[in-house]
Amino acid sequence: MSPATTSSAQGYPPSKEFAAQANATAEMYDRADADRLEFWAEQARRLDWDTDFDQVLDWSGAPFAKWFVGGTLNVAVNCVDRHVAAGKGERVAIHWVGEPGDSRDLTYAQLQDEVSKAANYFSAIGLVAGDRVAIYMPMVPEALISMLACARLGLTHSVVFAGFSAGALRSRVDDAEAKLVITTDGQYRRGKPAPLKAAVDEALGSGDDAAKSVEKVLVVRRTNHDENLPWVDGRDVWWEDTVDEQSATHSPEAFDAEHPLFLLYTSGTTGKPKGIVHSSGGYLTQASYTFHNVFDHKEGRDVFWCGADIGWVTGHSYLVYGPLSNGATEVVYEGTPNSPNEHRHFEIIEKYGVTIYYIAPTLIRTFMKWGREIPDAHDLSSVRLLGSVGEPINPEAWKWYREVIGGDTAPIVDTWWQTETGAIMISPLPGVTEAKPGSAMKPLPGISANIVDDQGNPVSHGEQGYLVLDQPWPSMLRGIWGDEDRFRETYWSRFAEQGWYFAGDGARYDDDGALWVLGRVDDVMNISGHRISTAEVESALVGHAGVAEAAVIGAADETTGQGIVAFVILREGVENTGEALVKELREQVSIEISPIAKPREINVVPELPKTRSGKIMRRLLKDVAEGRELGDTSTLVDPSVFEAIRQKRA
Ligand code: 6R9
Q1: Which of 418, 468, 532 to mutate for ligand 1's pocket (most ligand atoms within 8 Å of CB)?
Q2: What average pLDDT does the segment 38-46 reach?
Q3: Ligand 1 atom 5: residue of nearest CA
Q4: How far apart are CA 158 and CA 165, in angstroms?
C-alpha cells in the first residue's frame, strides 16, 4: 500500500475558464444528497426509454438490486440509432487506428449499418435474447460492432481478453454456455501477425472434449497470415461471407431495464474467475452519466481516447457504452504504445486532436521512463482533460501527467471503480473539485461510500480502513453468473449486518476529508492495472509436474504497480535445473492464464512459511520480496525457513 497521504498536499483548483464551461456543478452533490433516487431518475432520463420506469429502485431483494423497474429500452439504439435519428449520422463515432498503421473512420450512420447487419446475422443463426456470445478479439471495429449487435438483440456478451490463453477462454465459454464465439484469424503483436483462431480451436476442442454449447465460430479476417487457417466445416464461418451479406436494416426490440447486458469475468480471491453480471438500464445510465460529467464531454467538439482494451471493464464502459451513448467521437487503437515506436500515442493525439485522454498509471510511468522528449516532440495542445484508472496513481506520475501531457493546465480525474461497480464511483469532478495528486477525492453525486474498521465503525481521518459502498448504485453488479452464494459471500458477507458492499480495497481520508485508495486488502494483485489473483497463478504453477507447492505475492514494482513474485517447492526427486526450470514455469503460467500473469521472479525454496493452522504467510513473503526487515514471525511453525528463502534470493 503506497502513496503518502498528507493533507498539506498541494491542491489544484479548477481554472475559471474550465469551471465556466464544465458540465458538472457543485450543486449536483446537494441535489443528489437531497433526493438520491430522484437524482438517478433524472440521469436515467438522459437515455431514450421505450417504456418509462415506474420505480427507481427496488432493493427489497437485497443484495440483488432492481433499478428503473418497469422500464424498457434498447441499449444499442441508445448508443447508435438515436444519434442518427437526431441528424448526427455523419459524425465520426470511431477513429480506428490499426497496429500496422492502417485506419478506418466509422460514422454513426455507418455504425448503425454494421451493427444492424451483425444483428441480422445473429438472428439468422437462431440466437435469441438471453443467449450468451463470447467475443475473443483484438481491438478491431468488429469487436465493438459485435458487442453492440448483441446488445441490440438482448444477447448477453462475454468479452474475453484476446491476450488470454485457450484454457482461459474455454473455462469462460463453458461457464457461460456461449453459443457463438466471435474471433479473428490472427492479431498483431508488435508489428507481427500472431494466430488467434488457433487458440479458439484449441479451446473448443473436438470429439468428446468439445465445448458443448458452441454452435458457431464467426471469424473476422484481420491478419490474413495463414492461407490454410484450420477450419471446422459447419461450425466456422467468415464474417465477410455472412455478416457482410446481411441487410443493413434491422428493427430493434426493447428489453427490460434489468435484462443482462453482459458478463465479464474477473479474478477473485480463489482460482476460479467470476462472471460479473451487468444490467441494461442501470448500467447504461451510470456509464452515460459518468462519461458526461467526469470527462466533461462536449458533443460534436471533443475527441475522446480511452487506452483500455475491450477485454477489461474500462473498455466496456468507456470505449463502448459511455462514449457512444453520449454521441462521442472517439479513438480506438488496436496496438501497444510502442509499436512501431514510443511516439505512437502522441502521434495519434496530434493527428486526431484528442481532447480527453484516459489511461492507467502504469502507462504514465512507462512514458516517464521513456523520457519527456518523446511527448515533447508533438503538439499535444488539443488535450484539455486527463483521466487515470486501474490502480492508485502516485503523486509524481500525476504531476508529470498534468505537466507533460496536459500542458500544465488539464485537470486530472483519478477515477476509482471496479468491474463490479460497472462505472466510475469515486473521482474529482472537473471544473468543481480542487484535486490533490494521488487522491480520488470523493464519491460522485449519487454515490455513497465510507471507510470503516473491521466492525464497520467509520475510521477517523488519517486512519486506514476498508472501503465500503453503503448505498446501492445503478450500475452495480447484479450477481455472479450461476453462483448466488459466491456473490453474497464475496461482497456482502463482511458487513452483512449493515448490508454494505465490501470493495476489497483499503482506503483512508486525509485531514481535509479527501479519499485516498490504497490498494487491495485481499489476495488480488494489480499488475499494470490488471487484476490477477494469487490463487490463479499458484494453481498454474502447481499444475507443473515438478512443483509440489507454490505461494505467490504481488511485490511493489516501480512501473507496473505490482510485480508477481512466486515461491515454489519442488516435488521429491525433481531436479532444480535453475534458469531452465524457471523458464518452464513462467511458460506454464503464460499458457494457463496469460503472458500478463507471468511471474517477474520465481524462487525455488525448500519450505514455505506457514502458520500453525497451515496458512501461508504471504505478508512475510512480501516483506522478503520487497527487501524489508521481517515483521512478526512468531506465529510461524519454523521461522528458520526464511533464512533459507533469503539465501536463495541473494
Ligand atoms: C476499473 C478497474 C478494480 C481494482 C480496484 C482497485 C483498483 C481501480 C483505481 C484503483 C486506486 C484508482 N483501482 N481504479 N485503485 N485508484 N483510481 O480497474 O476495474 O479491473 O475490476 O479493478 O483496481 O484496487 O478494486 P478492475
Answers
A1: 418
A2: 98
A3: 418
A4: 15
CA distances (Å), origin 200, targets 86, 137, 162, 225, 264? 40, 10, 10, 16, 18
Query: Which tens digits make up the pLDDT trace of 306-362?
Result: 999 999 999 999 999 999 999 999 999 999 999 999 999 999 999 999 999 999 998
419 appears as a binding residue in the annotation:
yes
Whether 158 is in the pocket of ligand 1, judged by its Cβ within 6 Å, is no
Please check whether residue 614 is in contact with residue 573, taking contact to mean a CB–CB distance below 8 angstroms. no
The answer to whether residues 156 and 211 touch, using CB atoms and an 8 Å cutoff, is no
* Residue 583 neighbours by CB under 8 Å, 6+ apart: none
* Cell numbers at 227, concatenated: 492461407
Testing ligand 1's pocket by substitution, the residue of 505, 525, 530, 560 carrying the most ligand atoms inside 8 A of its CB is 505
Cβ neighbours of residue 102 closer than 8 Å, sequence gap 6 or more = none
CB 52: neighbour CB atoms within 10 A? 13
Closest C-alpha residue for ligand 1 atom 11: 392
- What confidence tens digit (pLDDT) does each residue in 519-555 have? 888 888 899 988 888 888 988 998 898 998 889 999 9
The set of residues, in sequence order, having a beta carbon less than 8 Å from that of 427 and lying 6+ positions away, is 290, 294, 413, 414, 415, 416, 440, 441, 444
Cβ–ligand 1 distance for 419 under 6 Å, the answer: yes
Q: Where are the alpha helices (DSSP H) in 244-297?
A: 281-294
pLDDT averaged over every residue in the chain:
93
CA of 424 to the centre of ligand 1 (A): 10
Q: What's the ipTM?
A: 1.00
DSSP track, 597-609: G--SEEEE-S---
CB proximity list for 500: less than 8 A, separation 6 or greater: 450, 452, 456, 468, 469, 470, 492, 494
- Is 14 within any annotated ligand binding site? no
Say if ligand 1 is within 6 A of residue 418 CB: yes
186 lines ligand 1 (CB under 6 A): no
Q: Is 417 annotated as a binding residue?
A: yes
C-alpha span between 5 and 507 (Å, rounded): 10
According to the annotation, is 70 in a ligand binding site? no
